[in-house]
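User: Could you check the structure of this?
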Amino acid sequence: MQDVEHLPIDIHYNKLLDWLVNRRHCKQQWQAASLIVQEKITAAVQGLPDSKEIKGLVARTDLNYFHCQQVIELLKDTSCGEKNIFGQYSSVEMKAWSDIIKIYERDGMFLAETAQMLIRNVSYEIPALKKQIARCQQVQKECDKKEADYVSKASELRKKYAASCKELGIKGDKIKSELAALVKDLPKSTHRFLSLPYGQLGYSPNNTQDEEDAKETGDGAAGAEIDFDISGITLESGGTDEGKGVATGEEAMTMLDNVRMRNLFLDDLMEVALVSDQ
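Assistant: Sure, the predicted structure tokens are below.
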């Protein structure tokens, strides 16, 4: 039959500390001894050797019984772990941390401290971590959704970019140099383009009349004698003879003579220059 002392028992975590005190596994005034231990730990930390692992361990603000045991194990691998002929540690640092362990184990004080840590972790720390995990998971879902949206948007913008490059007649690998190469083709058609008058299709610069000439022509016609004889009038079919039209005013000017069109043309050139500089 199994020994009764080794049978497991179920104790509610919130009542574990009270159970230890009631069963006299630790004293009721264990917190007073805990304050003494913390003072000794603070003093012992100052004399530790320069070890990266030890310094990282004692940098914690919640050193407890288990951390002190780890410090002793690390000190054994340093010069502080040397023993004298009696088999005892000769270094002051090792003696200090060994005394701390003895105080912890005296009257089961480390059991009470461990029970208090368990209660605090289960009641407060673990629920707080669960809430933080839930928030992080929610943020992760939102980030995944945004990532999918950005990937879709990037694909759409790449298609628009390729269409714009195709419309401009460039590959889109080196925009600045490719746009600069397009500018070289402008002088070939500039002279022909600027020599065209601003008017209806079919007008030519040789068949123009400015506003002053039109006014003079109109005044001369008004001063001439009116002939009311209609015998020589012949009817013709309707329609316009675009080839014999006369351009007047702005329509008779070339691109650079027309102020409005010249400004529009210069604005377009400025936009091309800005794009090529980027």
